[in-house]
Amino acid sequence: MDITQLTPSVDQLPTLANRLSLWQEDPWVGHVHPGDLGWHSSVGPEQMARDLRVWVLDGEPIALGMLDGSEVLRMTVAPEVVNDRVVARRLAADLNDAEAGVLAGDHAIVEARGAAALGEVLRAGGWVDDEPWTPMTLDLTGRLDISRLRNSGLRIEEVGPEAADAWTSTHWSAFKGTPFDDDSRARFVQRWTQMMTGPFADRAHSLVAYDADGTPVAVTTVWTAGEGRPGLIEPMGVHRDHHGKGYGVAVTIAGARTLQQQGA
Fold first, then answer.
1. Which domain holds residue 11?
2. 140-179: b or e for each residue (b if 16 or more CB lie within 10 Å)?
3. Contact yes or no for 229/24 (Cβ under 8 A)
4. Rounded to whole angstroms, how far apart are CA atoms 232 and 221?
5. Same domain, yes or no, for 70 and 165?
6. What whole-number distance in Å separates Cα of residue 187 and Cα of residue 208?
7. How far is 81 from 58, CA to CA, in rounded Å?
8. Pfam families from the entry (predicted)?
């Protein structure tokens, strides 16, 4: 079994996202989604490509890892080989070999939920389980209850780069809590615009929720993986001046509705 590991080119990113979409199945276990690549792509397409590791068998990708910093690799394995111990041992060998160029640093974390055989091989080799997190899922095959969105009084708009200031300032308040000075604003707007115009932009739907005064109070971006496949809500945030009003639930429902309309 000849498995090779490579770092893709920028031109290969859309093809990899298409392949990754095919690996998204119900029940979704929380592994890497095309939307994870999309959100990460705010670093720009060149750095995005450098942050990916792809394992290929007979010319086809069978596993993908995305570096989230130098010591964290978020991985997913193709469903057809997820229980293949030969494949798992090959992946683990690269993860354990500093010269393979997969991970750097003195400490390493591999996030590989759903990769059963790989997890077993890594544990047998001395890796230990870290703190788990549980993805929350919502069934979109039936009628979606939007009552909490309707009762929130929010106006939801799907936006593009022209609304970068509203989207980024709301997100910044939700997650940073520090002053959004001119330098921070310029950098974040640039990164968000790169994401919204980059190689995964066709999968992104960014929403801004406005209150009755026309103030942006919550934001989210949702990502599609294709007809009948799980979508991803990443990220979602509420401006810190508007916490406790149910806006987080409302904008999340709006995101879920958008995914449902896209066939998720």
1. 3-124
2. beeebeeeebeebebebeebeeebbebbbbbbbbbeeeee
3. yes
4. 8
5. no
6. 20
7. 13
8. Acetyltransf_1
Question: What would the pLDDT profile of 114-126 be if each residue is shown by its tens digit?
Answer: 999 999 999 999 9
Question: Over 80: is that where the pLDDT of 1 sits?
Answer: no
Is residue 139 situated within a structural domain? Answer: no
Rounded Cα distance between 217 and 241, Å, is: 8
Q: What is the DSSP letter of 212?
A: T
Domain presence at residue 231: yes
Q: What ranges make up the beta strands (E) of the chain? A: 3-6, 52-57, 60-67, 72-77, 109-111, 155-159, 204-210, 216-223, 232-238
Which residues lie below 8 Å from residue 84, measured CB to CB, with a gap of 6+? 117
Q: Is 251 exposed, middle or buried (0-12, 13-18, 19+ CB in 10 A)?
A: buried
Cα 129 from Cα 145, distance rounded (Å): 37
In a domain, 35, yes or no: yes
Residues 158, 58, single domain; the answer is: no
pLDDT at 131 over 90: no
Q: What is the pTM of this model?
A: 0.96
